[in-house]
Amino acid sequence: MSTSVLELTNVRKSFAMPGGERVTILDIDAFHMDANEHCALEGRSGSGKSTLLNVISGIMRPDAGRVIIDGIDIARLDEARRDRVRADKLGLVFQQFNLLPGFTALENVLVAMSFGSGRPDRHRAVRLLDAVGLRHRLDHKPAELSVGQQQRVAVARALANRPRAVLADEPTASIDPAHQQQVIDLLRTTCTEQGVALLVVTHAADVAEQFPRRVRLEDFNRAAQGHHP
Amino acid sequence: MTLLGIAWRNIRQRLLTSLLTALSLALGVALVVATLVTGGIVKQAFESGSGLGYNMIVGAKGSPLQLVLNSVYLISKPIENVSWDFYQQFLPATERPDGVDGTFAASTKTAVPICMGDYFRGFRVIGTNAAYFDRLSIGDSRPFAFSAGRNFRDDEFFGGVLGATVAANLGLKAGDPFAPTHGADDGKVHDPFTVTGILARTDTPVDRGVFVNMEGFFLQEGHAKPVDEEGEESGARGEESEARTAEREKDADGAREHGNQGPAPLPFAQREVTAILVETAAIPGLPGMPDLPAELTAMGLRTTINEGRDGQAAEPIREIRLLLDLFVRPLELLLLLVTTLVVIVSAIGILVSMVGSSLERSRDVAIMRALGARRSHVLAIVLIEAVLLAVGGGLAGWMLGHLLVGAIAPLITTNAGVSASVLSAAPGAELLLVPFLVVLAILAALLPALAAYRTDVSKWLQS
């Protein structure tokens, strides 16, 4: 039996424009993901993909609705508690990898562990980097790693605190086509091995078609429907 | 990885900036430490002179402070001389040729004359008698001690005792000859004296003194008060006849040839002293009445002398206190103000450094926040960075400051007459310095810390 790891219900998010007018970016009746599910979320530019990820990860609070992560409605939590849920329950992979440049590969994973509920576990960090093929690059800083290796560190870091879901925002957009497939394979394989749900935001159809579930944001975000920038 | 580890890594990431910031802090703190310690040493130098086993200095009319500076601290110029007859008024009948108590003998426990005006390789020469080291003491009760040799006897006209600093700096030892010069280092060279003893260190101006037997001092050219044939003073000083000088030098030679025994002292009529160091006596009370304590005796004696025409009496402790109140404490306050400003400027260095790296920091903060760091975490990381820089720079500066003091210690010891070394400290202010710096660093880092606290995560991640 599959349990839900992510549920969005009646989520609304709008922003005030400089003139005072409010523009609605998200208007979602329902969206959910099951545990272990791998899903590709497509959407054109401006459809609210980044805002949706920010709302799911608790970086932004919705104006209304429920955002339930592993049974916890983070929309009702204050910022500090949302931060804690994000650290414990979610792993984030960014388009630009966003590794900390002054920290080694191992330290980048350990830093993520520092903000979770558990104690930083060096052995687990080494194991994660080993799992993504970077056992021999533990003490290398991002600048000393190839683009592919940096993305592997980002994947290992996303899994540092045993999250229930990994959210990847355009993880292949900044890398050459030869490495794109490796990144997708790595994400899917690793998340499968770790029993973690995977939500990949992408605008690349060839990436999306590799996922068992493909959804288009415009299909369930009413705020994006009819917008053709 | 702890927040401390993250902060430390951030510092290492911006190694050059961090090192420059810490260096600027270190230099500021070193300056402060060196200033505080040196200021403390100067104060100690003055306070150390306040207890020399005598409570009154009698000298020629003029500035009492100058009298004290000259007699106690061996700095400044002597005012003038007082007559030998005036000095004799402090002596009891047993020590006077006429066998009659001097006018002030009843109020005097000890009176030691000093004569000044000569130098030996940069150090003051003080002509005195054996009582200086036999009867006076360091502080209230500690007797003078000799690290080598002994005190000169009163009949050793050309014997001398060297202060510890003098002996150490000039490499002289007991038995060595030394010849003072008249009036200045490049003045006429006097007859040689012989070192009979080296004083153990006292941490007082005495360490910088070259003490010679007053009898030998009197016999040097230009030291006798000119008098006419009838024994009356004869006009301008230094105009004594060549015949008289030659006669006296002959006497002095005779004295040396006879092991400094022998009748060659300068006649009393030709003698003067620069000052008299007086320890006042308690006066026995009338039957059934308590004794008059030495402090009250001093007050009465001071009034009597100051009302007379022969000289003035100054109380060293009173003058030193005045000196401390008038000069040293305000100077200390000024130094404290300057050093506080230096530390504040150093703390602003932290602010500038952190604000300068805020763009780079914002991205890192956004990443950490996205990974689940709370605002309090990033606030703490920035503040810990500031504290690490302050503690690192502060401790390095503290050590550098002491090394500076150590480097100039020989100069301080020579000129201030107090021991100074790399371990010299200004305990109160020094202990507060690094904590004060840490507090300032935290205050200075609050601005960048709050900027980090308010970092817009989504904006930075998208950019």
List keywords for this structure.
heterodimer, A: 229 residues, alpha/beta, five-stranded parallel β-sheet, four-stranded antiparallel β-sheet, 8 helices, 9 strands, B: 463 residues, alpha+beta, 2 domains, two-stranded antiparallel ribbon, 14% strand
Walk me through this protein's architecture.
- The complex is a heterodimer of chains A (229) and B (463).
- Chain A has 229 residues and is an alpha/beta fold.
- Chain A has a single domain, classed as Rossmann fold.
- Helices cover 34% and strands 25% of the residues of chain A.
- Chain A has helices at 49-57, 79-89, 105-114, 122-131, 147-158, 177-194, 205-208, 217-220; strands spanning 4-16, 22-34, 38-42, 64-69, 72-73, 90-93, 165-169, 197-202, 213-216.
- In chain A, helix 4 (122-131) packs across helix 5 and helix 5 packs parallel to helix 6.
- Chain B folds into 2 domains: 3-45 and 322-462, no CATH class; 56-314, no CATH class.
- Chain B is built from 14 helices and 15 strands.
- Chain B has helices at residues 3-13, 15-48, 64-71, 84-88, 131-134, 164-170, 214-218, 242-257, 294-307, 316-356, 358-370, 375-416, 427-453, 457-462; strands at residues 56-59, 82-83, 108-120, 123-128, 137-138, 142-143, 146-149, 159-162, 177-178, 181-182, 193-199, 209-213, 272-273, 275-280, 312-314.
- In chain B, strands 1, 3, 4, 7, 8, 9, 10, 11, 12, 14 and 15 form an 11-stranded mixed beta sheet that branches.
- Chain B is elongated and about 105 Å long.
- Classes of the chains: A alpha/beta (229), B alpha+beta (463).
- Chain A binds chain B through residues 50, 54, 57, 59-60, 79-80, 83-84, 86-88, 92, 94, 98-103, 107, 110-116, 120, 157, 161, and chain B through 1-3, 6, 9-10, 12-14, 363-364, 366-377, 457-458, 461-462.
